[in-house]
Amino acid sequence: MAEDIKLFAQPPVRFHIVKSATLQDEEIRDISRSLIENGAEPSTPSPSQQDEDFSLENVTHIIARTIDFPNYDAATETLLDKAVVKPEWVNASIMKKKQANPRQYSPDPRMFFSGMIICCADLPEGDQDAIIGYVLAVGGLYTTSVTKQVTHIIALTTESQKCQAALTRNLNIKIVLPHWIDDCLRIRARIDETPYSLPDAEILQRGNNKRIPDQDRRDLKTFSEPHPAHLPTPLSSFGSDLPQVTVFKAKSVMLSEDLGIGSRLRGTLEDLITAGGGTLTGSAHKADFFFCRYRESLDYRIASRARKEVGNLAWLYHLITFNTWTSSMRRLLHYPVSRYGLPGFKNFRISVSNYNGEARLYLENLAKAAGSEFTKTMKDDNTHLITAHPESEKCTAAKEWNINIVNHLWLEQSYARWQVQTISDRQYTFWPPRTNLGEVVGQTDIDKRAIEQYFFPPGSDEEDLDTKPAKTHLPPPERTARPPSAQGLGHGAPLRPLGSDGSTPKASKANRRHTDGDKAQTPANARAALLGKENETPSTGSRSAKAKAAAKLHDLAPDIALYEKESKRVGGVIHGGRRKSDEDRVEGGQRKRSVSIDGHSVESADQGVKAAKRPKTSNGLPTPAMRLLLSGYKRWVGQPTKRKESDEMTQLRELGILIVENPKTCTHLASPKILRTQKFICAVSHAPIILNSKYVDDCLSQNSRLDPAKYILKDKEYEESSGYTMAEALSRAESNKGQLLKDFSLFCTEAIHGGFDTYKAIAEVNGGICLLYRGRAGSTQIKPEDAADESNDVYLLTGTTPDEARLWPKFRQMAESNGKTPRILRHDWLLHMALSQRVIPCDPYMVTDDDVGTAGP
Questions:
Q1: Alpha-carbon span 415 to 408, nearest angstrom
Q2: Could you identify which of 486, 592, 665, 812 might form a hypothetical disulfide with 822, taking C-beta atoms 3.0 to 4.6 angstroms apart as the criterion?
Q3: pLDDT digits over 26-56, tens only?
Q4: Do strands 600-605 and 592-597 pair parallel, antiparallel, or not at all (unpaired)?
Q5: Contact 840/832 with Cβ under 8 angstroms?
Q6: Which run of H or E residues covers position 703?
Q7: Structural class in CATH, domain 2-105
Q8: Residue 343, pLDDT score
Q9: Going by C-beta distance under 8 Å and a sequence separation of 6 or more, which residues neighbour residue 539?
Q10: CB 146 within 8 A of CB 119
């Protein structure tokens, strides 16, 4: 009977609990007991594993108070993503007698309203809807009545019945102005509610000249500088009695020579690692952890491409001090720095105001790491002033000298995205009233995609993977360090237009002007502007100058590429270059050639290497005969370390099989069956040869590159149910040439299963454009270039959750107001089209109001 079904049995919950400093054994036992009593199953015999590299195969829910565990990215980056929730999700589900929405209990710091439950009192309906939508989008919850669970009441005054009830019953509820929600939206972080708290909100008090308090951020101490000169004080006080550091247990660690530490300190660090069960290695191929100072060495690129844990000395000290794994990507200065700095920052002179203590030191070191000049005192030749609030003598002087005034987010996000951010973005020139932004310093993560695109893009430098493990050393500068003019250009680094002199455009006076609200009214206009169309980067400099610069870069590109290729050769760059007749001549640029791989003709980028004369690389490895992409491959899942994966990938490389991550560069795809993963679907559009993943197992066991023609993937069950064969789909993919969706106008809901980025990638690899649709007034308008299809249809990909269903009427209205026909479809429509590589009717996938709350097909 339905009454006998336990809460966590349907849908089934198989859980793993991640132990951390804020989630210890006693609480883990209580959570585990509650889950099991209500029908959940632990993924392992023990609900908590000391080894954080647990297997994701049998897990549906991961209980954690932090996202700092090694499997977090893998758990959230697949179409079959796992639910990562706080422990509060368990109690909330039990109280509601149904499984709560995991999104509202995410430990992701970007969901900065997680754990907050709001109630609105006497607000205009439009403002109330906007506030509720934003709170839900960043992890909060909403209720219509005042209960003990409510944390905040959003109101204009305390005179409403809900506010009086909270005050009368002496509930621990904060009553705040809606301005607080708006300012959190602008900063994209949760700031202190005190200046917005009723009945005596500071931001409403006229003539309040009270000094804004400083923020003491001692928590920044372990990541305020990228290369500490000494061990942290607690560790240095141990002397010969070293503490037990188990964070590296069963892991291999490599300390790069470019760390520049003395033999005594290196010996101490090595003793700490080995005493806790870790091992040391001199090979980036075999290392689980790789520590270096700069983003330039061969070992850095090898470790990064192999998805090793890469960080700097400050991160090593942090791991040892707290004996808990955290990602080096979470803190900007825990990741290796660039020797040459961020392009565009070299001419900046930056000063800081109103940040103090560790926050000030952190921003100073971050500005230097970005390549700018930091000045403790400000002069009229400074280009930027970074301030926590706009009330200081420096701010007054900066306005008089026409110096750009920004908050710390401009510096952090420029560094994280490795691209100078324009100060015309209101986010960087906004300071919440009576608030010191020092309280939210250091919350920006490294943008993994930006770093990969600039420093080690897939397929751009494959000689790195051809190199056998070598002894740890820092090669001579002329062989590894790239000249500032060439660094990144060979990698297709994104360039943002700057001013004509190379500097960031000056901020206008309008951007620096701040208004004080004398009356308590909902800031609807500001909210509408923020939720509308984003600011566009203003055009700066003459078109003629830009055209000349682009032409010059284009002319120099072959020389830069040739320099980089020659600099990696044994012997370095020869004066005067090599003759065309030389056997090991490297030609600049790329050209395509047809290569026969086991009976199949494949077009591949040869980087100008003459295959007939260079059958092997300079290190003795064969030129890759196969660039293989893996999807759904389980051989290395759940391994206690990554050593087996690294060793076997090296073995495959020696056989001529290069494992790649980018679907665009693969010639072959290996999978146990036809899957609906992002990798598989994106690869199909490039028509690779699709093999059964047993091919990889057999190549490894026989230590030989076998004939792939004998391992062509056959999935009769899928092909019978779908009505087409994969051979037919690949044939159509060759004809489509990546343009299957070129005439489609696609939109996608933010909460769609698998995430918007997945569907965006699938659409783009098939020649389409997919835009995010949030249903906000003015946030999405159909432009001519977004609606080129002759059928006059526009499509919204969606799930059937109540939150997504609320967007459907708004989408219909938006489409019809632009003279288009709305088509609201389940997300499976796009997946089936991309897999079959043919346009299929959308009628079977149309959703109606009756589908709300149902599962997809």
A1: 11
A2: 812
A3: 888 889 989 988 888 888 765 444 445 567 7
A4: antiparallel
A5: yes
A6: none
A7: alpha beta
A8: 92
A9: 497
A10: yes
| Residues forming beta bridges with residue 153, ordered by sequence position | 119, 175
Overall size of the chain counted in residues:
857
Query: What would the two tokens of residue 239 be?
Result: 């002397």
Amino acid code (one letter) for 315: W
Q: How many CB atoms lie within 10 A of CB 590?
A: 12
Q: Which residues of the chain have pLDDT under 70?
A: 1-4, 45-54, 77-81, 206-209, 231-243, 459-622, 640-641, 777-791, 853-857
Q: Quick one: which of 816, 842, 810, 815 has its CA closest to 829?
A: 842
Largest CA distance in the chain: 92
From 82, 94, 91, 99, select the one nearest 43 (Cα to Cα): 82
pLDDT at site 417: 94
Asked if the peptide bond before residue 199 counts as cis, ω within 30 degrees of 0, the response is: yes
Query: What does the pLDDT read at residue 19?
Result: 82
Ramachandran quadrant class, 231 (left: phi over 0; alpha: psi -120 to 50; beta: rest): beta
Determine the angle formed by the axes of helices 448-455 and 298-305, rounding to 10 degrees. 130
The fold of 736-851 is Rossmann fold (3.40.50)
Query: Quick one: 592-713 is in which CATH superfamily?
Result: BRCT domain (3.40.50.10190)
Which token pair is 126?
Answer: 């439009």
CA 416 to the chain's CA centroid: 10
Using DSSP's 3-state secondary structure scheme, residue 689 falls into strand
Report the pLDDT value the prediction gives residue 787, as an integer from 0 to 100. 43
Closest-CA residue to 750 (of 306, 267, 133)? 133
pLDDT, tens digit (0-9, with 9 covering 90-100), for 202-218:
888 866 667 787 777 77
The C-alpha atoms of residue 686 and residue 602 are separated, in whole angstroms, by 11
Pick from 164, 88, 179, 168: nearest CA to 127:
179
Compute the distance between CA of residue 431 and CA of residue 424 in angstroms, rounded to an integer: 14
Whose CA is closest to 344, among 166, 501, 557? 501
Single-letter residue type at 550: A
The span from the CA of 51 to the CA of 48, in Å, is: 9
pLDDT of residue 595: 38
Return the CATH number of 117-204, one of 3.30.460.10, 2.30.40.10, 3.40.50.10190, 3.90.226.10.
Answer: 3.40.50.10190
Which helix (H) or strand (E) element contains residue 25? Answer: helix 25-37
User: Are the beta carbons of 318 and 222 closer than 8 angstroms?
Assistant: yes
- Closest to 553 in 3D by CA, of 639, 493, 619: 493
